[in-house]
Design a protein that fits this description.
Elements (H helix, E strand, L loop, with lengths): L7 E5 L12 E5 L15 H9 L1 H15 L4 H8 L16 H11 L11 H15 L14 H13 L12 H13 L11 H8 L2 E3 L5 E5 L1 H13 L3 H19 L1 H4 L3 H12 L7 H4 L2 H14 L9 H12 L7 H50 L5 H12 L24 H10 L14 H17 L7 H29 L1
Antiparallel strand pairs: 1-2, 3-4
Helix pairs in contact: 1-2, 1-15, 2-9, 5-7, 5-10, 6-7, 7-12, 8-9, 8-14, 12-14, 17-18, 17-19, 19-20
């Protein structure tokens, strides 16, 4: 990828690629034809960011989850945290066998790569051996059959001096390269998995399933073992973790070709356990019954190597919340509680939102109803005065207060008055909500008027509530009202004329 070629532009979330503090670099593509391609995002980005920027917080987070899976007493926990020097088997033994003396002498002869503490430069040199072995996995007895010692020494000197080596030239055999790789691991000052993690690996090998009664069985609990190894690998030094990933991937691919090379995962574990897991300066007698656990542990790592270098989901979420959330949760249980509490917190929010929507809908419906009732009241008010008009007003009074058109008009409490016989006064008091002056009562109440009012009530009961009457019924009702009004007026006029 060239620099600013017009299609790509380099961008970084950390210092320049040449610096040692860079976490990751990403590429912004300016070519519209390539924007449809999927974007690859590292799910462990925040995990690596937290490990790089706040190593103490990161270590505490991971170790707290390791102690949830395996039981580490105070001394072993302090050793894992680096607070105490590791107490390893055979460290207090006074016996000094030939093997132990020989290994000590070999480690005193430090070179640039071999015998030196693990560095990125050493990993870059050794990665040439790993790449070559990936192309020659079919060699029978790979890592078991020793190579030629003279060719191995030539290759070792070349790696120590930093000389470029062409392994594909045919000068070296795959067994030479495989033996030299084991030699490099064996001459490290401490095993690849470090002395601090030795007791933790023994405890991980003891993780077994439980039966229905809660008794421990002899079946390994693979899920818990994988989770514990994932956590343990997260707190390895960065060079150790990088080389371990390259090595386990090579051994995994080698075991897949065991039909050709005759090297199963267990056979490979027997070859590499002393170099990557056994403490330095110890013999098989010092380890005693732990040898089987250690060998089985390396076998398990080879078989499940493709899963061991991914951070557990709850660690990724904790790291993400540390940077994006309000607070960081330090364990898987806290994350489960976060999920459950988050769903519970969303329920009242949803109910509040739903209640607001229901309230708005009810208010809108109420407003439309009141407007319709007001319009109907105006229509009744425009009708000529009659007994039917009075009964219609009474029907409106029978409705609940929220449905009356005057419910939105604030009315001041007034002393109780006798009901006015004036239809206009009733409508004003109901629609306008203002106190109305009591009119004089009708001086005369004729039997004809009473008979007309009874007919009106009977008709009103047949027609039902005014709120549900159709326009045609209202018109017919108006015609009947006018006829009854003419009869009442004629009767009153004749009575007045006779009295005069």
């Amino acid at each position: 990828m060239g620099r600013r070629s017009g299609r790509y532009e380099m961008a970084a979330g950390a210092p320049a690629p040449g610096g040692s503090d860079a976490i990751c670099n990403f590429v912004i593509c300016n070519d519209s034809s390539l924007r449809s391609q999927p974007i690859i995002f590292n799910p462990d980005f925040f995990v690596e960011k937290l490990r790089h920027e706040k190593p103490e917080v990161f270590t505490e987070l991971v170790v707290s989850n390791i102690t949830r899976l395996i039981d580490l007493p105070g001394t072993e926990l302090a050793q894992l945290m680096g607070e105490e020097d590791p107490k390893l088997p055979g460290a207090n033994s006074t016996a000094s066998g030939f093997f132990r003396s020989l290994m000590s002498l070999k480690r005193k002869e430090k070179g640039v790569v071999f015998g030196s503490p693990l560095t990125e430069e050493g990993i870059a040199q050794v990665s040439q051996l790993i790449e070559y072995l990936h192309k020659n996995l079919r060699a029978e007895g790979l890592f078991r059959v020793p190579g030629n010692s003279i060719r191995q020494q030539i290759l070792k000197d070349a790696l120590n001096s930093g000389t470029d080596i062409d392994l594909d030239s045919g000068e070296f055999h795959s067994n030479d390269v495989a033996t030299l790789l084991k030699m490099f691991l064996g001459e490290l000052p401490e095993p690849l998995l470090t002395h601090k993690h030795f007791h933790a690996h023994l405890k991980i090998a003891d993780l077994m399933l439980f039966d229905d009664k809660g008794n421990k069985t002899s079946t390994p609990d693979k899920e818990r073992q994988i989770e514990a190894l994932q956590l343990l690998f997260l707190i390895l030094p960065a060079p150790n973790r990088s080389l371990l990933k390259l090595l386990l991937d090579l051994l995994y691919q080698t075991a897949k070709k065991q039909d050709k090379n005759k090297m199963s995962a267990h056979n490979l574990a027997l070859m590499f356990a002393p170099h990557i897991l056994w403490p330095r300066n110890v013999t098989a007698n010092d380890l005693q019954e732990n040898i089987t656990k250690l060998n089985n542990g390396v076998t398990f790592m080879i078989k499940h190597s493709q899963k061991l270098f991914k951070a557990p989901a709850y660690i990724r979420e904790c790291a993400r919340l540390h940077y994006l959330g309000s607070r960081a949760h330090t364990s898987k249980d806290d994350l489960d509680l976060l999920t459950s509490s988050g769903s519970k917190e969303l329920q009242p929010l949803k109910s509040q939102k739903r209640s607001r929507l229901d309230t708005c809908h009810q208010e809108e419906t109420q407003q439309r109803t009141e407007e319709a009732l007001k319009e109907l009241f105006r229509h009744v008010h425009s009708m000529p005065d009659s007994a039917k008009k009075k009964k219609l007003i009474r029907q409106f009074n029978k409705h609940p207060t929220p449905l009356t058109p005057a419910s939105d008009v604030p009315t001041s409490p007034a002393p109780r008055r006798t009901r006015s016989r004036s239809f206009s006064g009733l409508i004003k008091r109901k629609v306008l909500g203002t106190p109305v002056i009591q009119e004089r009562k009708s001086r005369d109440a004729t039997p004809e008027a009473e008979r007309v009012s009874k007919e009106n009530v009977h008709l009103l009961q047949k027609c039902g509530s005014p709120a549900h009457m159709s326009q045609a019924k209202l018109k017919s009702l108006e015609g009947r009202k006018e006829g009854s009004c003419r009869r009442v007026r004629g009767h009153l006029l004749s009575k007045d004329s006779s009295s005069l």
